[in-house]
């Protein structure tokens, strides 16, 4: 099986490639980077990428696929379909399923379901503590053997510093990164949105920025104490970013991700009490969003991750106070990244690829991903920076529709998604770009 992605502009920060080149994939792996003038290899199918950017496959470090246990919200297959439709060749699945992925049997089940779906690669993340209850460490070694790439109690913080210290020491022994959902629950209490002027005006209980920042500082200090690899999930505040910036200056193994909704929206979006603006961490005030944009541009933020969190329409149709936290994000992330970051001059195209592919692969040590080096997996995301398109949530591949971005128009999109040399998604604008060569 041979696929030649021809006439595109290759951007691969892992090897400093930024040039018009052809990419050859053979039997699922990158076979080489060729010049436009080189002969088309015999028997290759040609994908014409003229005018498009060809990048190593995008990797989302943070999704909730809900299977096992909440298949009415999403399954591994529907989540992986939404992933490829959004330009993601790989997704990393958080363990807050039912049962929680805190043992090898659940890990293996997730991997088997993903293999059956034959869509995006799914890398499971195991729980830090049993049942993510924060009381007793989970069997990280067994889960690692079964295929987890990181550990996290995401959805919940690890409440005590002592437990987090032991978790980091334990995870370090297995070379697993610890991904923390930073939220001091004694401060967040039963808040439902960011604490500030808007929570006051809307009469909703607030979650102070400090709830995230305290845990972020704690985790950075513990990273120094334990030498563990620490990754902060969905950072949303100026203080959390400052903690990461300081940790990096000190040479610690600390990384962080940001979600598209946190770099796009402010807490003002909650004004209409739309429960699709309710997520954890909450949408923050303008000053925090500015800190995120600065950190995206100066390199403090390592990755863009969606925190795709599907919920059923009936659950989101409750009062703001009672609706669950979370929004879907796989199919709108790249549109938002182009529109809000690239076209506004906050990041360049190579930085976009770094944030969505090179760095995620490095942070979770995903072998043969995030690069187009010969021998790497033939996972490719093709981008059209200028395509204008409108997101219609009714046509989403996800089982859920809980997004604040329904009906939004974007400039820029992921227009084709290729996993191990198989073209799994092409935008309708590209349908005539593929031809077989005898
Ligand atoms: N991010 C969210 O708003 N929701 C997540 C869990 C969580 O992190 O609260 C979910 O699983 O629904």
TrEMBL record:
Q: Name what cofactor the protein needs.
A: Zn(2+)
Active site per database record: 307
User: Which Gene3D superfamilies does the annotation name?
Assistant: Metal-dependent hydrolases, Urease, subunit C, domain 1
Record-listed substrate binding positions: 64-66, 96, 280, 311, 325-326
**In the Enzyme Commission scheme, what number(s) does this protein have?**
3.5.2.3
State the reactions this protein catalyses: (S)-dihydroorotate + H2O = N-carbamoyl-L-aspartate + H(+)
Pathway(s) served: Pyrimidine metabolism; UMP biosynthesis via de novo pathway; (S)-dihydroorotate from bicarbonate: step 3/3
Q: Binding residues for Zn(2+) 2, per the UniProt record? A: 154, 181, 234
Keyword list (alphabetical) reads: Hydrolase, Metal-binding, Pyrimidine biosynthesis, Zinc
Q: Does the keyword Hydrolase apply?
A: yes
Quote the record's cofactor note: Binds 2 Zn(2+) ions per subunit.
GO CC annotations, alphabetized: cytoplasm
Q: What does this protein do?
A: Catalyzes the reversible cyclization of carbamoyl aspartate to dihydroorotate.
Indicate the family of this protein. Belongs to the metallo-dependent hydrolases superfamily. DHOase family. Class I DHOase subfamily.
* Stated name of the protein: Dihydroorotase
């Amino acid at each position: 099986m041979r696929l030649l992605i021809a006439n595109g502009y290759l951007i691969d920060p892992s090897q400093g490639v930024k040039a018009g080149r052809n990419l050859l994939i053979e039997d699922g792996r990158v076979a080489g980077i060729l010049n436009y003038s080189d002969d088309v290899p015999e028997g290759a199918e040609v994908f014409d990428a003229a005018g498009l950017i060809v990048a190593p496959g995008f990797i989302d470090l943070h999704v909730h696929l809900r299977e096992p246990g909440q298949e009415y919200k999403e399954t591994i297959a529907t989540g992986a379909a939404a992933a490829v439709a959004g330009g993601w060749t790989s997704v990393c699945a958080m363990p807050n399923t039912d049962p929680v992925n805190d043992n090898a049997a659940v890990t293996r089940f997730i991997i088997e379901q993903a293999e059956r779906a034959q869509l995006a690669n799914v890398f499971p993340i195991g729980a830090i503590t049993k049942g993510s209850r924060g009381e007793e460490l989970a069997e990280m070694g067994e889960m690692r053997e079964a295929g987890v790439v990181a550990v996290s109690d995401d959805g919940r913080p690890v409440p005590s510093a002592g437990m987090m210290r032991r978790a980091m020491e334990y995870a370090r022994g297995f070379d697993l990164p610890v991904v923390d959902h930073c939220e001091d629950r004694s401060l967040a209490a039963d808040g439902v949105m960011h604490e500030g002027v808007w929570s006051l005006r809307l009469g909703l209980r607030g979650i102070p920025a400090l709830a995230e920042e305290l845990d972020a500082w704690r985790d950075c200090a513990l990273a120094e104490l334990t030498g563990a690899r620490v990754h902060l999930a969905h950072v949303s505040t100026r203080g959390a970013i400052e903690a990461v910036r300081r940790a990096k200056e000190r040479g610690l193994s600390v990384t962080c991700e940001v979600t598209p909704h946190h770099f796009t929206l402010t807490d003002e979006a909650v004004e209409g009490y739309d429960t699709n603006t309710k997520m954890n961490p909450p949408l923050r005030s303008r000053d925090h969003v500015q800190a995120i944009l600065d950190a995206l541009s100066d390199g403090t933020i390592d990755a863009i991750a969606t925190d795709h969190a599907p919920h059923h329409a009936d659950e989101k149709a409750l009062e703001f106070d009672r609706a669950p936290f979370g929004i879907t994000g796989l199919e709108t992330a790249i549109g938002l990244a182009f529109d809000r970051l690239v076209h506004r001059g906050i990041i360049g195209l190579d930085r976009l690829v770094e944030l969505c592919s090179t760095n995620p692969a490095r942070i979770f040590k995903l072998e043969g991903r995030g690069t187009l080096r010969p021998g790497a997996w033939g996972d490719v995301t093709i981008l059209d920076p200028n395509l204008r398109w409108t997101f219609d949530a009714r046509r989403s591949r996800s089982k859920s529709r809980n997004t604040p971005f329904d009906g939004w128009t974007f400039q820029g999109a992921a227009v084709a998604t290729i996993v191990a040399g198989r073209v799994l998604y092409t935008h309708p604008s590209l349908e005539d770009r593929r031809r077989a060569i005898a």
